[in-house]
């Protein structure tokens, strides 16, 4: 109905301007004024039509924004059961945390999505992959992680340099499962390094970054990062390509790399470079 009224208003304005111009032209024999009135009438009809269109467009946009802003609060307000109200509040709290991550440029990912996204980024990498991973018994035994590792091997075949710093406890390095993982990655030409857990940079060294780091992240071509959340929850990890956030991870990686040690192989035994020199001497 509003649209019909708008079209009728434009038509009426056009008829009024044209009728007035005809009156000046035929009745008053004032042709110059008739032409001016007709032209001004046409312009006024056009301007008022454009204004109405813009006002209608703005009104629809404001209405849509209003509905979006109040849809969830109104839906929660219609919940009458107290237990359901509590559940709704918990869901809203989780949603707010997710929105806060998205505002920072992070995409939250569940377990499978995390390794799938890591595999995609590894397949897209052209220069380097810098990774920090906690190493425990059974690392890499799950299917999602194995497929992720296969993408690492494909990247190596393309000439991508992969450096992986494993975080271990001093008494864990000799465990057979840990030795197996280290030896396999070393033989696959990954630049494997070790950093002891108690030698990780302290919170005060990590300027400008969330100090609750899991030290379980990877940087792809210095352009994108995937990071595991330290606290378990709905999401397993997150991804970002925001350069400011990537720079924070690059800084953290440099600090960890500074404390890391290279490894060497002695009789199929993985040793730290310094320990291997001591054995050789």
UniProtKB/TrEMBL annotation:
Keywords, sorted A to Z: Membrane, Transmembrane, Transmembrane helix
Residues spanning the membrane: 7-27, 33-51
Protein name, UniProt field: Uncharacterized protein
């Amino acid at each position: 109905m509003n649209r019909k009224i708008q079209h009728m208003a434009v038509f009426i304005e056009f008829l009024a301007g044209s009728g007035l111009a005809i009156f000046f032209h035929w009745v008053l024999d004032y042709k110059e004024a008739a032409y001016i009135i007709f032209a001004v009438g046409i312009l006024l009809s056009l301007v008022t039509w454009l204004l109405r269109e813009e006002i209608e467009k703005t009104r629809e946009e404001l209405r849509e924004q209003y509905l979006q802003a109040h849809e969830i609060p109104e839906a929660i307000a219609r919940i009458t059961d107290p237990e359901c109200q509590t559940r709704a509040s918990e869901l809203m709290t989780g949603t707010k945390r997710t929105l806060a991550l998205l505002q920072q440029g992070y995409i939250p990912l569940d377990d499978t999505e995390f390794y799938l996204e890591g595999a995609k980024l590894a397949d897209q990498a052209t220069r380097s992959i810098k990774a920090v991973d906690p190493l425990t018994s059974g690392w890499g035994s799950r299917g999602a992680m194995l497929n992720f590792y296969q993408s690492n091997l494909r990247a190596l075949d393309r000439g991508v340099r992969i450096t992986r710093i494993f975080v271990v406890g001093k008494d864990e390095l000799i465990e057979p499962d840990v030795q197996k993982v280290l030896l396999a990655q070393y033989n696959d030409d990954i630049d494997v390094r070790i950093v002891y857990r108690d030698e990780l940079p302290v919170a005060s060294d990590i300027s400008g970054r969330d100090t609750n780091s899991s030290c379980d992240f990877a940087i792809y071509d210095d352009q994108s990062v995937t990071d595991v959340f330290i606290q378990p929850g709905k999401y397993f990890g997150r991804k970002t390509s925001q350069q400011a956030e990537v720079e924070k991870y690059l800084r953290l990686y440099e600090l960890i790399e500074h404390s890391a040690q290279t490894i060497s192989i002695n009789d199929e035994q993985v040793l730290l470079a310094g320990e291997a020199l001591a054995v050789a001497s």
